[in-house]
Design goal:
Layout: E1 16-17, E2 38-43, E3 50-55, E4 61-65, E5 70-73, E6 81-82, E7 93-99, E8 105-110, E9 117-121, E10 129-133, E11 141-146, E12 153-157, E13 165-169, E14 177-178, E15 191-192, E16 201-204, E17 208-212, E18 214-215, E19 219-223, E20 231-234, E21 244-251, E22 257-263, E23 274-277, E24 285-286, E25 296-299, E26 307-311, E27 314-318, E28 326-328, E29 337-340, E30 346-349, E31 354-359
Antiparallel strand pairs: 1-2, 2-31, 3-4, 4-5, 5-6, 7-8, 8-9, 9-10, 11-12, 12-13, 13-14, 15-18, 16-17, 17-19, 19-20, 21-22, 22-23, 23-24, 25-26, 26-27, 27-28, 29-30, 30-31
Amino acid sequence: MRRTLGIAGLSVPLTLAVGAALTTYSSAEAKVHHPALSWSVTNVGSDQELRGLAPVGSRSAWVSGDSGGVWRTTDGGASWQDVAPPDSTGDTLYRDIEATDADHAWLLAIGSGEDSKILRTIDGGATWITTFVNDDPNAFYDCMAMWPGGRNGIAMSDPPDGKFRVIRTHDFWRTWSVVDSSGMPAAASGEFGFAASGTCLVAAGARDAFLASGGAASRIYRSHDRGTTWSVVDSPIPAVADAGGTFGLAFRNPRQGLAVGGDYTDPDNGAHASAYTRDGGRTWTGGGDLGGYRSGVDFVSGRPGTAIAVGTSGADVTYDGGRSWTALPSDGQGFDSVQCLPGGGCWASGADGRVGRLRR
């Protein structure tokens, strides 16, 4: 996204406990249930906004920040190690990170032209190798995704020539190639992706990929051949020029998916900000209203239909696959990104160096 999202001024440590009686919100807010969930929050030792998030187990996770920071934990978030690439600067925007374990991670820096690049580490961040540098001044990469196992990956750029650009790797992210654009539908003028949580592009199953957009058009693209060919449908989440549309996607399997978004300049308005699919993205249905704009969402492992959505103003939970949502009290706090792990447990990251673990 060429208009880089601003950093929300969140500074109060978050302790979020849900269990007291909750009120039912108006139609512009989320429907409320009675969950027993809480966030346990730590800080990486920085005030950077952490939009890149890659948990890889109950004790290991990676996060990346808006001012060139990268951190890793191997003790469940009790302590964080600064593992940023040595040439990172305060102007480097690390908006997405993927990982397979505590040693192997891939990092996306966003921006126009050569500011968009992908780096790789195989030694826990002790060293980094740049594996891709964008050479098109009109391209701007937003998100990347990985299929199971880590061998195959994909990344996307805003349309540099009337279509979203896709690059792929098939060798554990050592090399990348631009995918022929003939299989990508034309984008609307002013349509782009949001580099807000690393989930404007996600992978599902062994070959499926999904891409979300906003701005002049709010749409969801799908591919069933690892990004060679794509189809596109309108998203139920409204487009807002420059500031709104579909921000984040999550798929429990290649058929069951969720979408969240809204207008990041109106963070407390969650009306019409969610959608769900049950047919692999061929059709999308408007879901329940959220507690505000949301940039990230993910399914909770082992609980079909349960998912967590996060945004700068708070978080929500659904128990019915997105048809209705519960807004979690958050004292005005929120996160940018959320990811849940197989076996249960969710991590989130956001402003002021905050990382949360969801307790059940």
